[in-house]
Amino acid sequence: MNQQQSFDAPSGSQSGTTGGKSAGTSNASNSANASNAVRHRGHSGPARTSSVNIRDIAAAAGVSTATVSRVMRGNSKVSDATREKVQEAIERLGYVPNAHALALTTPPNSVTLVVDHISGGTYSEMTAGVERETSDRKMMFRIASTGGKWDEPKPILDDLLSQRPRLAVLTASDVIDDPIDDVLNDYVDKFKSVGTSLVVLARPRMRLSSEIAVVDYANESGMYELTKYMISLGHRRFMFAGLRRNSSVFMARYHGFLRALREAGIEFDLRCTIPLDGDRAATIANTMAMFPAVHGCTAVVAVTDEMALYVIAALRKLGKSVPGDVSVGGFDDMPYAEDLVVPLTTVHAPFGNMGHMAVKIGLDDFGRDVTMPTQLVVRGSVAPVR
């Protein structure tokens, strides 16, 4: 796991040897007798669940205890082949870190937030909400970053499991049909066994187990209200900036946009969309290429405030003023939105309150599904059609 503090079982104090021999040396008797060692070992030794401990995993996989620890932490300095051997041994022997031993390094009265990235307005507000709610409860707060690497979730979840927090809040992938949901479901019982509750933040439930709580927000209705407001000012020719078909969050916003147009009897050419692209130059180029093709366009609805800024930059390069020639609306209400030269009309997403709610729903059994409301914020970037 990237950019995080590591709180492992007391295996770090081990020498990395088993029975006087290097656990990193392939030894037929070590591997073959790993299960027997599980049955006959006494109460001393490293963190364990039942009678399985980290030395048994090392012996079964033919590696050192230090290597096992690195695999469990998601350390990148382990080959794929070695990682597969260790993970196979962990699953085969049913290893879960012992809660009592882990208490030496991780307070059970803790909340861990797992995010894709530390930076960014969305993440910073949610992080602040989780941290404040945790602090108000006199609990320990920890944060970990995946670096966006949810494509390999097991090392992330194994490391989180070893920390044994009272609550784990995850900003897991919102990609439609992402296998991460199935992996999380497989880990539910493991987390329950060490007393950890799970909450997924800022996305819909999709295929998640009912044992995992979800805090979502009103993306569809929020974009519906923004689009409906722009229609009320006389706009009939629209572009949509930020289409990403595999995102449950962004597709909900797109569906809200289409619903408002449909209810108003406004036809929309589905080709009048700009794909979501985090690259500023690419988005500006795409907007400049698309806009002249949408005859009479007076309004652009952007899936995020960031996309709205890129669209405004493109329109200015085309000699169009905002909102004089074209109205532009965004979504999220980032802190900078009201401080722009033309303050941005947008939809406020309560990211901070969502962070608070994630802790409440996880610790107070406040239901299993909560959808936080969004709110239209009218500023200067949207005006009546001239």
Describe the structure.
This protein has three domains: 91 residues, lambda repressor-like DNA-binding domains (434 Repressor (Amino-terminal Domain)); 134 residues, Response regulator (Rossmann fold, 3-Layer(aba) Sandwich); 132 residues, Response regulator (Rossmann fold). Helix content is 40%, strand content 16%. It has 14 helices and 16 strands. Strands 6-5-7-8-9-15 form a six-stranded parallel β-sheet, sandwiched between helices. Helix 10 runs parallel beside helix 11 and helix 12 crosses helix 13. It is elongated. GO terms for molecular function: DNA-binding transcription factor activity; transcription cis-regulatory region binding. Keywords: DNA-binding, Transcription, Transcription regulation. This is LacI family transcriptional regulator.
Question: Quick gist of this model?
Answer:
This protein is of the alpha/beta class. Helix content is 40%, strand content 16%.
- The figure for the number of domains is 3
Structural category = alpha/beta
Helix content: 40-55%
Instruction: Catalogue the unreliable spans.
Output: 1-49, 103-107
Radius of gyration: 25 Å
Order of helices and strands: EEHHEEHHHHEHEHEHEEHEHEHEHEEHEE
Morphology call: elongated
Label this structure with key terms.
single chain; 386 residues; alpha/beta; 434 Repressor (Amino-terminal Domain); Rossmann fold; six-stranded parallel sheet; four-stranded parallel sheet; elongated
SSE topology sketch:
Layout: E1 17-18, E2 21-22, H1 28-32, H2 34-40, E3 48-49, E4 52-53, H3 54-61, H4 65-73, H5 80-93, H6 99-102, E5 110-115, H7 121-136, E6 140-145, H8 153-163, E7 167-170, H9 180-193, E8 197-201, E9 213-217, H10 219-232, E10 238-243, H11 248-263, E11 273-275, H12 280-290, E12 299-302, H13 305-317, E13 327-329, E14 346-348, H14 351-363, E15 369-372, E16 375-377
Parallel strand pairs: 5-6, 5-7, 7-8, 8-9, 9-15, 10-11, 10-12, 12-13
Antiparallel strand pairs: 1-2, 3-4, 14-16
